[in-house]
Design goal:
This protein is of the alpha+beta class. The protein has a single domain, classed as Gcn5-related N-acetyltransferase (GNAT) (Aminopeptidase), CATH 3.40.630. It is built from 5 helices and 5 strands. The protein has a 5-stranded mixed beta sheet, with helices on both faces. A hairpin with a 5-residue loop joins β2 and β3. The chain is globular. About 25% of the residues are buried.
């Protein structure tokens, strides 16, 4: 995948990462190694989300609306992942970054910067003018990273409707 100089230099300058230390790649077909790595990484992001099945991961990798990225260290081990969602709305292409996770033993080494830099490049190539993401306030290091990379906090409300919890007619 190509990374623009702007995105690559922003990620590199932020944490001192060179392209030789971490490689970010798009997953187009899920291997057992990638499935195992995501199952290992996901609990570091969410204690309540079950690991996706191989079929669910294949659906993500094959979907034209999602880009599943993984970061590999110098030993070719998967040490992080991110999902970029790109969709078309009446107001134009939109992009959203979801489920950014870096192995807790590897944090602070620029892997998150590299993943986000690649996602920004892909979003720009898809025509998106902005990229959104959310991050819990308790994820202090992640929030600092996003601010360093140029994300701005938005004055907005985020709402969630839990389809498993409420009556279906509540939305009518």
């Amino acid at each position: 995948m190509l990374v623009t100089e702007d995105d690559a230099s922003r990620a590199s300058a932020t944490n001192g990462v060179s392209g030789d230390e971490v490689v970010v790649e798009e997953v187009t077909s899920v291997t057992p190694e990638v499935a195992s790595a995501i199952a290992r990484l996901l609990p570091q992001l969410s204690s309540s989300a079950p690991a996706p099945t191989n079929e669910e991961l294949q659906d993500i990798a094959r979907s034209p609306a999602t880009v599943l990225l993984v970061a590999r260290d110098s030993n070719d081990h998967v040490v992080g992942s991110l999902t970029l969602v790109v969709f078309r709305a009446p107001t134009g292409p939109r992009a959203w970054i979801e489920d950014v996770v870096v192995d807790e033993t590897q944090r602070g080494g620029g892997i998150g910067s590299a993943l986000v830099g690649h996602a920004l490049t892909r979003a720009r190539a898809a025509g998106a003018r902005t990229v959104d993401l959310t991050s819990r306030p308790s994820r202090e290091a992640a929030n600092r990273l996003y601010l360093r990379l140029g994300f701005a906090r938005r004055e907005t409300n985020v709402y969630r409707f839990d389809l498993d919890e409420g009556p279906a007619d509540r939305a009518h």
